[in-house]
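Attaching the record inline, Q. Sequence:
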Amino acid sequence: MQQEIERLKRKYIFSASAIVIAVIWEMLLVMNLLIQMLFRANSSNADAMILQAAKSYDYQTETLLLSEMEQNADGDYLIPRSIHSVDSITLSGTIRSDSDSESWYCGGGGLMYLEETANQQELVYREYTFNKDTSEVTIDFQNDSTLKRERSAEARQTSGLTTDNFLVSIVWWTSREDVSLALDRITIHYQKERASNDILHLSYSDLFENQIPEALSERNSFYLVTDSGGSLSAVCSGNLPTQISSEEAETLVSDVLQQHRDSGSISVQKSYQYTIVPYHDFQIILFQQDQSEQKTLHQILWISIFSGFLMTLILIAVIVLLSKHMVKPLSDSFSRQKQFISNAGHELKTPVTVISATTDLLERKHGSDCLYDTIKAQSEKMSRLIAELLELTRFSEKSKDTADFRLFSVSETVETTLLYFESRAFESEHSLHLEIAEDLTMYGDALKIERLVGILIDNALKYADAKTEIQFCLTESNHRILLTCSNLCSDLTPEQMEHLFDRFYRAEESHSHQKEGFGLGLSIAQAITQQHKGEISASLQENRITFTVKLQKS
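Structure, as predicted:
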């Protein structure tokens, strides 16, 4: 028995430790995988959003609202862009007349800029005209038909023009006094080769129209756009706290192109990870400030491993310490049962046999007597107790013994067994409701199954409420034999349910003297069930107790 207890103790320690180790390391593994997946997913999503927006942006076209531009003393709009890289300019506006009967009317103005020729500056302007129902007018800088020059020094001084800007004039003229022309915005179409002072400077606010995705706010990133020859065309400072200057951007482009790789890292004042993505006649260089994500992931991994080992050692130590307390009740119970069964089997069997034999001799010699009947009845009761104890001991010691197992009809065995109890049920004024499935077979010991059924129905007849129905069912479920026995038992409490399968336990202690038996029946039923690799359980619901036995078919 002590070896069995030690085996159970080792099994408990091994099983509990295995569960603890599996749970801890599985949780740590899943946590690290999820963190890495989250890092990569966030990075990939952010890169995809940036590149999609970057590819959809027209870097050869720039739209400016005139309301946001500076005006000179004459009310003309000064545009801070050099005219030398401009291919054409589209002006958008609205022309209208107060008279609805006019079939045609027009109005116009001009664009002015400075041009250096022969060591002197000339004021050059190109005219534009809006006709009725016209909302856009394009000025082609490759067509000189609208080009005019003015050498007036006074005009240059009052205009506020320099070589780095140009001017959009207010309306110069209209065909009638009731005609008005208002300009809203201009769209600049740049040449492919762009001057350095015409490089576009953007941010994510421009790129996403002031609706920056939340994923981009978690990491610093920006991108540069170059033509196929590597000349800088646009700078998007992304979500950096300060704008990237053209000089810094050109340095970054030069350093990246010198590496001759589509991705990598560079260090210019700060460390960056870059990726080059070709797009039509341009190439987009996406930069992400190196925030040591891999270093952070490695730190999380090592912290997880250290924490896992520490938690595992602590919990295993706790399990070992608790194992003694876990098996102590079982050890004590086994010891008491072993001692009692041994004493009952050896010390009581011989005296009871002698008493029974002596009583029989005296009865034959002196005749029947009430004293002899009492002695005989009590000795028979003691014999039954000893027999049940020895039976339980045999089941416990030979729980894996299957030498007597055969394939038999469990339907016939159950039905035959229940016939023995119909008269008892009638005498005790109980009714039996039987549901026995036909032609069910199983591999086992028919005599032990008969004993199991007898224990369940005998227990129900003893403890069921007076004049109530007892239900017994035999069915097949999920390739298993299912036995259920239920009856009303108003005196049973949930606390008593926990001890029903304990040896020598009787639920109705106050009435135990009125019930035959020794509290070993359900323990024997449990041992028989375990020998057949089955399960037995009891449940109480609305004062109805139900015993359920699940047996393997083979």
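The first strand starts at residue 61 and ends at 65. The mean pLDDT is 81.

More tomorrow.
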